[in-house]
Design a protein that fits this description.
Layout lengths: L5 E4 L9 H16 L3 E4 L13 H11 L23 H13 L3 E4 L3 H13 L15 H9 L5 E4 L6 E6 L3 E6 L7 E3 L7 H11 L4 E5 L6 H10 L6 E5 L2 E2 L15 H7 L3 H9 L14 H7 L10 E2 L2 H14 L2 H15 L10 H12 L8 H9 L16 H16 L6 H15 L3 H13 L7 H8 L1 H14 L3
Parallel strand pairs: 1-2, 8-9, 10-11
Antiparallel strand pairs: 3-4, 4-7, 5-6
The chain binds one RNA strand through helix 4, strand 6, helix 6, strand 11 and helix 11.
RNA sequence: GCCCCCAUAGUCUAGAGGCCAAGGACGUCAGCCUUUCAAGCUGAAAACAGGGAUUCGAAUUCCCUUGGGGGCACCA
């Protein structure tokens, strides 16, 4: 009987989670759910110096937003905790000591300055940088001398001086490394915290992780991990190194690529289901044509076998398209619920709060098929809320002369004043014939009215817009337009 | 500099020797629809990095070159 699938997402709180991090989380989650296994979140907070305030919250919040629920980890606990590495220091220290005792690791007293100098020298000589193993064979006497000086040592792994380390990646296949290219890396830092290599290997073992799905950038560290598993006599999990998500310049995603923090996308009004769909297709595919795929389908069909090997650029244009598709798919009520908060925060402060839900309900259908993100809603609908329209007078006479515009607006005013009911079809019933009476093309006439009532040349369908605005507002605005034209 | 990974259109991808004179999607362009903007519908342009080798036959296998990426910290 195969061991149950247990996978983990192991972020370090050294920054806000970007889409690359979250894509890794998504693949782990999908694999866990597909395999009816467990999805674990473990916080790798072993770098005290680079710790970023709020990062853990942002990471967990991103997962919540995308509904990537975890079975063990922060907030939920579990039988393999604690799930914060900073709370497991005793374990790492004991294991590091054990490695020293069994001869697989040693104490190193070299100062950071010496190491830096050494590396600089190596670079200058065009040699591969790496620890020169000065402390690897320290005599007892020398060690005592250094201890007395009060130097706190680090613990380094004794990497084999020869031979090769090979392993099999689920995505890459066989990979072989020559041990001579490896140096004696640090396991335990002088501040008593473990390095990633130690903590990661120890925890994956202790937490009985079955598959490690992590970004490609870790592939180069694989031989160290394999060597560590061997030294500790642990059975290594299976590894799958995922292709990376790259910035537009094809380099590793970083702050300099702008809004890549996952929560930024929430703020901009992308739907989580669109983000999940989009991210899933960055490095994974179902077949030769599926673009739109639900979370349920993803869970059902996700497979390690269909993960690509090539790094992928995050294509915002395609995300935008997909976002629009998802927004249009929402039913009216759902759309209203989702767009409301964005209007509350996005519309000018001068507008009374809270917004009238009933009014927004009328507006919502007019923009649902036009916006790409919920964040665009405010700008699209602002003219529905403001008292005074602010627009360039010239817009009223781009297609017609001032005289014609005045005549047409007066006629329109008169026409809608006497309307029995102010709805879409009655508006069309009176305004369309009016256009021909005035001898104006509908495009010109309606365009003029559009500017007068909305202050812009591009807006939702005119009659629907006017119906929602209501008779009073429309008359006021037409009046205002007449004034602008000096009528 | 050394090590590792990767290589189909601008971008995301399908393709596991003949089904490929390479399929889908975004984007782009054109047309249709239309009161504007979107949406929708039609259509078009656009790719197997290069060179060898294996084979009756290669986008698919192997080698080299080139290109891109990642790694080489008391960071993860």
């Amino acid at each position: 009987m195969r061991k149950p699938v247990r996978v983990r997402f192991a972020p370090s709180p050294t920054g806000l989670p970007h889409v690359g991090n979250i894509r890794t989380a998504l693949f782990n989650w999908l694999f866990a759910r597909h395999s009816k296994g467990r999805f674990i979140v473990r916080i790798e907070d072993t770098d005290v110096a680079r710790w970023v305030k709020g990062a853990i919250e942002a990471i967990l919040e991103s997962l919540h937003w995308l509904e990537l629920d975890w079975d063990e980890g922060p907030e939920v606990g579990g039988d393999y905790g604690p799930y914060f590495q900073s709370q497991r220091l005793d374990i790492y220290r004991a294991i590091a000591q054990q490695l020293v005792k069994q001869g697989d690791a040693y104490l190193c007293y070299c100062s950071p300055q010496r190491l830096e100098q050494m590396r600089a020298e190596q670079m200058r000589r065009k040699e591969p940088p790496g620890y020169d193993r000065r402390c690897r064979n320290l005599s007892a006497k020398e060690r005592v001398r250094l201890e007395i000086q009060g130097i706190v040592p680090v613990i380094r792994f004794k990497t084999p001086l020869s031979g090769e380390t090979r392993f099999r990646d689920l995505i890459r296949g066989r990979v072989v490394f020559d041990n001579r290219n490896l140096d004696d890396f640090v396991l335990l830092k002088s501040d008593g915290y473990p390095t990633y290599h130690l903590a990661n290997v120890v925890d994956d073992h202790l937490m009985e992780i079955s598959h490690v799905l992590r970004a490609d950038e870790w592939l180069a560290s694989i031989p160290r991990h394999v060597l560590l598993y061997k030294a500790l006599d642990y059975k290594p999990p299976l590894f799958a190194h995922l292709p990376m998500i790259l910035g537009p310049d094809r380099s590793k995603l970083s702050k300099r690529h702008g809004a890549v923090s996952t929560l930024d996308y929430r703020e901009q009004g992308y739907l989580p289901e669109a983000i999940v769909n989009f991210l899933a297709l960055l490095g994974w595919s179902l077949d030769d044509r599926t673009e739109l795929i639900s979370r349920e389908q993803l869970v059902r069909y996700f497979s390690l076998k269909r993960i690509a090997k090539t790094g992928a650029i995050f294509n915002i244009d395609k995300l935008n398209w997909m976002s629009g598709v998802y927004i249009r798919q929402l039913d009216a009520e759902d759309f209203l619920e989702r767009v409301l908060p964005f209007l509350e925060t996005g519309l000018p402060q001068s507008i009374e709060r809270p917004l009238s839900r009933e009014y927004v309900q009328q507006i919502a259908p007019l923009i649902q098929e036009r916006i790409t993100t919920l964040g665009e809603a405010a700008e699209y609908t602002e003219f529905f809320f403001v008292e005074e329209l602010d627009y360039d007078r010239a817009l009223l006479s781009t297609d017609v002369t001032d005289e014609v515009a005045l005549e047409a607006l007066r006629a329109a005013k008169k026409g809608i004043q006497d309307l029995d009911s102010f709805d879409t079809s009655s508006l069309e019933g009176v305004l369309r014939p009016l256009a021909s009476e005035l001898g104006l093309k509908t495009g010109k006439f309606f365009g003029l009215l559009r500017v007068a009532t909305t202050g812009r040349t591009a807006a939702p369908s005119l009659f629907q817009t006017m119906a929602v605005l209501g008779r009073e507002r429309c008359l006021q605005r037409i009046e205002a337009a007449l004034n602008r034209l000096g009528g």
